[in-house]
Write a structure and sequence with these properties.
This protein is mostly helical and 299 residues long. The protein has one domain: MetI-like (MetI-like fold, Orthogonal Bundle). The chain contains 14 helices and two strands; from the N terminus they run αββααααααααααααα. Strands 1-2 form a two-stranded antiparallel ribbon. It is globular, with a radius of gyration of 24 Å. One of its GO terms (biological process) is transmembrane transport. It is a multi-pass membrane protein. Keywords: Cell membrane, Membrane, Transmembrane, Transmembrane helix, Transport.
């Protein structure tokens, strides 16, 4: 009995550091954010009156400022997710498969080359791509001018603004997905491919019937993490386009920031952030169910 008690205590002590960090940096901020969203929490006011679900009701009331702010930002965010996530998955997997077929002596060099941008900060990334996409003096437009091609407003007109943001995102973050896919491809047994070759399978058959089913769990992980990251997009539109042209790239997190620190209305900004978090959770669950929905029933 004493040994069992000591064993439980030891196990609890191992878990305690993680639980403290979880409570301090995740659980408490979420609960406090919910608390703030239920109050009229103006930044410069010492009094924070309880208003219940008023901010949430206002967000879903057509014609209100919060309704327009939230849903316009949400639509821009959804556009970014739709444009970026498929490319982050397809290009990441394509690069991983390409590197897997390179000679072993240079494979590590290419892995490092593609992963290196992921280590850069958002500010460094934005400076690099501003120098490339700047309409007046950027590298791309300087090159186009020398070729007698009219300059393109990469950051100040649509659809070029979205093209610039997606290109920047791919360059900046694709290395992470690539490394994940490389590790997944390394786990696929070579015997499967050898057996398929003996049966006369071509490269497409091997990819479709062996590679994809074998890396399905990793594919789901990459899809969910890429979706979450794309929903939380902030640095690229904030630093490169400033939400323009107009408000066409002003994503939801930029609107939350403006509501909280420009208009100084923390309560409604927290309500917007909580709704965004709930939406991300719902989409992640839907993605998981669509991928593994029948697995539990089959087993």
């Amino acid at each position: 009995m004493v040994k069992s008690w000591h064993s439980k205590l030891t196990s609890s002590l191992f878990v305690l550091p993680y639980f403290i960090c979880f409570a301090a940096f995740l659980l408490f901020p979420i609960l406090y954010g919910v608390y703030i969203s239920l109050h009229n929490f103006e930044l410069l006011s010492p009094e924070h009156d309880f208003v219940g679900l008023k901010h949430y009701v206002t967000i879903f009331t057509p014609g209100t400022y919060l309704n327009s702010l939230f849903f316009n930002g949400l639509w821009n965010t959804i556009q970014f997710v739709i444009y970026s996530v498929p490319l982050l998955i397809v290009v990441g997997l394509g690069l991983a498969m390409l590197i897997q077929h390179l000679p072993g002596k240079i494979r590590g060099l290419f892995r490092t080359f593609y992963f290196l941008p992921y280590a850069l900060s958002a500010s460094v990334m934005s400076v690099i791509w501003l120098m490339i996409f700047d309409t007046n003096s950027g590298f791309l437009n300087s090159l186009l001018t020398k070729l007698n091609i009219p300059a393109i407003p990469w950051l100040t007109d649509q659809p070029w603004a979205w093209v610039s943001l997606i290109t920047t995102t791919l360059w900046w973050t694709i290395g992470f997905n690539m490394i994940i896919f490389i590790n997944a491809l390394n786990q696929v047994p070579e015997d499967f491919y050898e057996a398929a070759s003996l049966d006369g399978a071509n490269a497409w058959d091997k990819f479709w019937h062996i590679t994809l089913p074998s890396i399905k769990p990793v594919m789901l992980f990459v899809m969910i993490t890429s979706t979450i990251a794309s929903f939380n997009v902030f640095a690229q539109p904030f630093l490169l386009t400033r939400g323009g042209p107009g408000d066409s790239t002003k994503v939801l997190l930029i609107n939350v920031l403006d509501q909280a620190f420009i208009r100084k209305e923390i309560g409604s900004a927290s309500a917007m952030a909580i709704l965004m978090a709930l939406l991300i959770m719902i989409i992640s669950v839907v993605q998981f169910r669509l991928t593994y929905g029948n697995k539990g029933e089959e087993s």
